[in-house]
Amino acid sequence: MNTNKNIQTDHAPTLPGNGRRMRFVVLGAGESGAGTAYLAQQQGYDVFVSDSGEIADKYKQLLQSWNIRYEEKQHSEDEILKAAEVVKSPGIPGKAPIIRKIKDAGIPVISEIEFAGRYTTAKMICITGSNGKTTTSSLTYHLLKNAGLNVGLAGNIGNSFAYQVATQQFEYYVLELSSYMLDDMYAFKADIAVLLNITPDHLDRYEYKFENYAASKFRITQNQTAADYFIYCADDEEITKGMQERAVAAQTLPFSIKKKLQPGAYLENDNIVIITNQVHFTMSITELALQGKHNIYNSMASGIVARVLELREGSIKESMGNFKNIEHRLEFVARISGINFINDSKATNVNSTWYALESMTSDVVLILGGVDKGNDYSMLKELVKHKVKAIVCLGRDNKRIHDAFEDDVEIIVNTFSAQEAAQVAFHLAAKGDTVLLSPACASFDLFKNYEDRGNQFKDAVKEL
């Protein structure tokens, strides 16, 4: 159990000697920021919320109803630099001018997870990876909830962790953690940590150095002890390399589809085999709700968590068999004129698109594009050659996609809206084909976020 989670005197909201409440600043007023502000106010802090953009009406109304001071479309330094501590949105880079000024003033900058973790004694199951973390977090939560555990789902998914800590009494949390969140976590500890994979992503935030990004992912093991568990993919080269370079204090439980591992999980005769504490769990991959090679890994990781928590075998099998995947992740939209339309808008990096293509069993018209984060498309070339009959670009600047695939695909078309992309893809596809929106890029050139991109695509498909 975490030792840092009880409220300690060094987190008390009054400054010694003068009795004034400690100033606490939240940068960014989205789901995470609003929840953090509420928890901080509940704990007695003098809270101020600052957002350089426009605050959504939903969160503005919440802050007003809670009587929390806020500003939008600016950062007032005279207010912010009075803080004893700052929680920043994961989307704000550490190089942002306001963050540099805060750090130069000697003010600690932490994440919502770090802050909220101080005020709960719940057991923490923390999941990260370049790909699959949302699916694995959702599946793990499904397993625990169906087994009757009192569990919350938070982090990069669902409602704010801080708000749940303030308003609920969960005994377990499943937390999906991005590298951005991990970067601002220091004393927090995962009771069970899961690392799915490490592939190049968000390198613009890591000085375009893969090793910096990998080190960020391994922060999920920080502060773990021999009483904790670290579950990881033994088939991932970067994780294997990272394990050789660092000492992990937790009990390790690897998983693999290439080799037999005990303890841990492996694949044998199309069965997932999980062994923890000499107890065997076996389930055929044909019974899994999630299909495709990448989802075998996701199911193994969730299954190991379930076995560590000693959930009943029957409950695990039932939950793994009836799980429904999350929206915008290989989400079936419609079948029109014998053509399947799949929404994988959450695929914001090349590796996610690789996984999506790997799971396709028909010819594909692939919708790609958006904000390119320094993508290396070479890993897609073999799959594109064998599975993709046409590429529909959806983004303002598609030159790098054309350059990457002009020798592999006969047809590459530029489009500039979800409606146009869906229409063009429909005309390029034939009966039995799949139109797959799996962009490999961020969405911010044409859309608010990947959800907006996915929703506009689904609306466009329904109008065909």
TrEMBL record:
It comes from Mucilaginibacter hurinus. Residues 127-305 form the Mur ligase central domain. GO terms for cellular component: cytoplasm. This is UDP-N-acetylmuramoylalanine--D-glutamate ligase. It holds the Pfam family Mur_ligase_M. GO terms for molecular function: ATP binding; UDP-N-acetylmuramoylalanine-D-glutamate ligase activity. Residues 328-441 form the Mur ligase C-terminal domain. InterPro entries: Mur-like_cat_sf, Mur_ligase_C, Mur_ligase_C_dom_sf, Mur_ligase_cen, MurD.
